[in-house]
Design brief:
Length: 151
């Protein structure tokens, strides 16, 4: 049980890094006055940068952090799974974060709480989905190691 909680905490911190990076890059581009309707190529480049730069940073961080807890093979498999699945979980969480943001805005009555609700919802959904994938990959990796050792 302690192993699963430790994995969830590490994956949750990495999901927080990803969502914070994505929100920060998008909000920073809005504050600088970027209009994606005028320049579609720059919008695509900025969108890709806003998505994949935080994922790369979080994947490098989670790889280093997992090496202290798991074996080299398990850490490599977990960080690869996180890096490959995070864009999928990010898309799902951004869509579902509108629901959590709407509820937060309805309950609190201010737009700021709607943004905070969307942010927290995106972090939790990304962390949960990435944790599910990472725990599945960890089980498969441990099963493969046990089969190799028994032969």
């Amino acid at each position: 049980m302690r192993d699963a909680f430790r994995l969830f905490v590490i994956v949750g911190k990495a999901a927080l890094v990803v969502i914070t990076g994505c929100f920060a890059l998008v909000l920073m581009s809005m504050l600088l006055g970027f209009n994606p309707d005028l320049k579609p190529t720059e919008g695509k480049i900025l969108g890709g940068l806003a998505c994949f730069l935080p994922i790369g940073i979080a994947t490098a961080w989670i790889s280093r952090k997992l090496r202290t807890v798991y074996s080299w093979r398990e850490a490599r498999a977990l960080s690869t799974a996180f890096g490959l699945f995070t864009p999928i979980s990010l898309v799902i969480s951004i869509v579902l974060a509108e629901i959590t943001g709407g509820y937060a805005e309805f309950l609190a009555g201010r737009r700021f709480f709607g943004l905070m609700g969307a942010f927290v919802g995106a972090v939790l959904i990304t962390a949960f989905l990435s944790f599910l994938v990472c725990s599945l990959v960890l089980r498969v990796t441990r099963l493969a190691q046990s089969v190799e050792q028994s032969d």
